[in-house]
Amino acid sequence: MKNRNRKAVCIMSGGMDSTLAAYMMQEQGYEIIAVHFNYDQRTQQKELQCFESIASVLQVQEKYVLDIDFFKQLGASALTDKNIDVPTDGLEEGVPVTYVPFRNGIFLSMAAAIAEKESAEVIAIGVVEEDSSGYPDCREDYITAMQRAINLGTKDETNIEIKMPLVHLKKSEIVREALKLHVPLEFTWSCYKNEDKACGVCDSCRLRLAGFEKAGVKDPIAYL
């Protein structure tokens, strides 16, 4: 039975990873407070649509949809600056051009404000370290450091744990865990480029498709 005194603020992009993280929190008995960010990313409308569908299936009672124009002004990422092409050849080395500078730090800071206001004891984020695209703000050490900073910068009685239940999983393991928890994967979106049919060739699509292939199941979303 859900314990109404235990709340988890779940940062939910509409993607497979953050959706699974939210399902895992609900499975552990937390009341989900769903948080979604519109930051002028290329697939903003599709991601918002996915978030709303997933929040509905999860029967979320409290949700925040936050608009941030900062990243559009900043640019510096292929996700927020349409003058920068999204790579599709899979050959990029180092930190990819799809990295949005300090995005997770900003998201976690805003989620911390919500968690303190809502008296939530957990923030859940679907970062994946080993099988991600090499984003520095998806590293476990970084998230742990943010947890300490958040607790230093909030009221003494506030004690927030940042849970990252997927951080050491491979994409195939994420797919299997999602199937086990009956996550509606058909409502999730990973493509960096398109909002109608997924491109299948950007880094995020490649990782997703490889995960489904290794898990031995078919991805339920449409691809070009």
Describe this structure in words.
It is a single chain. With 224 residues, the chain is an alpha/beta fold. The chain has a single domain (7-215), classed as HUPs (Rossmann fold). The chain has helices spanning 16-27, 44-57, 70-74, 103-118, 140-152, 171-180, 203-215, and strands at residues 7-11, 31-38, 62-67, 122-124, 161-163. Strand 4 (122-124), helix 5 and strand 5 (161-163) form a beta-alpha-beta unit. Helix 6 crosses helix 7 (203-215). The radius of gyration is 17 Å and the shape is globular. The termini are far apart. The mean pLDDT is 95.
List the helices and strands and how they pair.
Elements: E1 7-11, H1 16-27, E2 31-38, H2 44-57, E3 62-67, H3 70-74, H4 103-118, E4 122-124, H5 140-152, E5 161-163, H6 171-180, H7 203-215
Parallel strand pairs: 1-2, 1-4, 2-3, 4-5
Helix pairs in contact: 1-6, 6-7
Element order: H for helix, E for strand: EHEHEHHEHEHH
**Through-space gap between termini:** 42 Å
The CATH topology corresponds to Rossmann fold
Number of strands: 5
| CATH homolog superfamily | HUPs
Structural class: alpha/beta
CATH architecture: 3-Layer(aba) Sandwich
- Write down the domain tally: 1
Keywords: ATP-binding, Ligase, Metal-binding, Nucleotide-binding, Queuosine biosynthesis, Zinc
Function: Catalyzes the ATP-dependent conversion of 7-carboxy-7-deazaguanine (CDG) to 7-cyano-7-deazaguanine (preQ(0)).
GO molecular function, one term: ATP binding
Family: Belongs to the QueC family.
